[in-house]
Amino acid sequence: MYTDHTVSIKKLRRHAKAVLRDAILEPVMILDGEISAAYLVSAEKYDTMNKKLHAIHGLERIGKLSSRKPAKVFADEL
Questions:
Q1: DSSP class of 33
Q2: Whole-number Å distance between alpha carbons of 18 and 4
Q3: Which of 6, 14, 40, 72 could bond to 29 as cystine, CB 3.0-4.6 Å?
Q4: Cβ of 5: how many Cβ atoms within 10 Å?
Q5: The pLDDT of residue 77
Q6: What is the average per-residue pLDDT within 42-52?
Q7: CB distance 40 to 23 below 8 Å
Q8: pLDDT at residue 72 greater than cutoff 80
Q9: Which residues are CB-neighbours of 14 under 8 A, at least 6 positions away?
Q10: 41: which residues sit within 8 A by CB, 6+ positions away?
Q11: First CA to last CA distance, the chain
Q12: Cβ atoms within 10 A of the Cβ of 7, count?
């Protein structure tokens, strides 16, 4: 995820409401020193990303199933 909006953990603690308002407009990277610790996104953005990930995961499973060799089945074995 890419964002230009970064906030330190200290600032998040002090100004949580403002940071949450900002996260509605764009993702916010939470920094622990100079290292990214987390991303804060709106609930709507999270739901959209989650649906896309589930769709991708479903496509991967379909791809794995369709790449299997078909099994030979004879009518008398059923």
A1: T
A2: 16
A3: 6
A4: 14
A5: 56
A6: 91
A7: yes
A8: no
A9: none
A10: 1, 23, 27, 28, 49
A11: 51
A12: 19
Sheet holding 6-8, edge to edge: 6-8, 28-32, 35-40
Residue among 6, 46, 60 at smallest CA distance from 30: 6
pLDDT for 9-43, tens place per residue? 999 999 999 999 999 999 999 999 999 999 999 99
38 Cβ contact list (under 8 Å, min separation 6)? 29, 30
What is residue 12's predicted lDDT score, i.e. its pLDDT? 96
What pLDDT shows up at residue 71?
64
| DSSP summary character for residue 61 | H
In terms of residues, how long is the chain? 78
How far is it, in rounded angstroms, from Cα 58 to Cα 54? 6
Q: Indicate the residue type of 36.
A: S
* Both structure tokens of 74: 């004879």
Written as one letter, the residue type at 32 is D
